[in-house]
Amino acid sequence: MINRIVGSTAEAVADIEDGSTILVSGFGGAGLPTSLLDALAAQGARNLTIVSNNAGSGGIGIAKLVLAGQVRKVVCSFPRQPGSTAFDDLFRAGKLELELVPQGTLAERIRAAGAGIGAFFTPTGAGTELAKGKESRILNGVEQVLEFPIHADYALIKAGCGDRWGNLTYRRSGRNFGPLMATAARCTIAQVRQIVELGDLDPENIITPGIYVKRVVLEDGAAS
Fold first, then answer.
1. What one-character DSSP code corresponds to residue 200?
2. 216 touches 5 (CB < 8 A)
3. What is the mean pLDDT of residues 34-54?
4. Which residues, other chains included, contact 13 with Cβ-Cβ below 8 Å and sequence gap of 6+?
5. Which of 2, 79, 110, 165 lies deepest, with the highest CB count within 10 Å?
6. pLDDT at position 73, please?
7. How far is CA 3 from CA 153, 193, 203, in A?
């Protein structure tokens, strides 16, 4: 019997090792798997590479890991935002690496990993500092930059509902990067607001099929 539900967020992240590359869903607070990130902070894995839309703020979520010195590198589109003092201080001190990636390119690099695409060309960033050191070509009269997929060891994502097979639905803007990230990691862990019985999810509404998900866990404070 397939059952991907685990009993706690601590159990869900227990095997994340030092040096792991981790995809983290979320656009601001929407879709951010805060319970899983709190559990990872408590677990203590270090030297992490975090790939996300932003570098966290306010001392919660990704910022909590950054503050604890657990993050070696951040790959994101928006490293600075109100409350991102943790990232700012460590980056300026040379204690944190940053790879800045335009948001559309970030999404496509993650999607490419899940789709098995070896590389792709995009005009985004051509002729700017972001293209330095990268191969470029003129395609259809437009300069384009070669970009490579972002594969990860783990994806920590947040969904609305999940069942024991790992099928997931999302709530509105909380969907953002979650479905892409679920396909691009060796192990996808989904924090959900509600766990439902097998068959309760309309197949037409399932966004992430369970084949991409290894673990499902109820977010802290959610009623089972």
1. -
2. yes
3. 97
4. 36, 39, 40, 43, 45, 156, 189
5. 110
6. 97
7. 21, 17, 18
* 222 has pLDDT over 80: no
Q: Per the structure, how many domains does the chain have? A: 1
Tokens 């972002």, residue located: 150
What dihedral do alpha carbons 216, 158, 60, 104 form, nearest 10°? 140
Question: How far is 211 from 95, CA to CA, in rounded Å?
Answer: 37
- Asked whether residue 179 is assigned to any structural domain, the reply reads yes
pTM, to two decimals: 0.95
CATH number at residue 53: 3.40.1080.10
pLDDT of residue 87: 87
Please, what sign has the CA dihedral across residues 132, 77, 180, 216? positive
CA dist list (Å): 75 to 72, 147, 157, 158, 217: 10, 14, 16, 19, 26
Give residue 152's domain range.
9-120+147-218
The widest CA-to-CA distance across the chain, in whole angstroms, is 56
Give the mean pLDDT of 187-214.
97
Reported residue count of the chain is 224
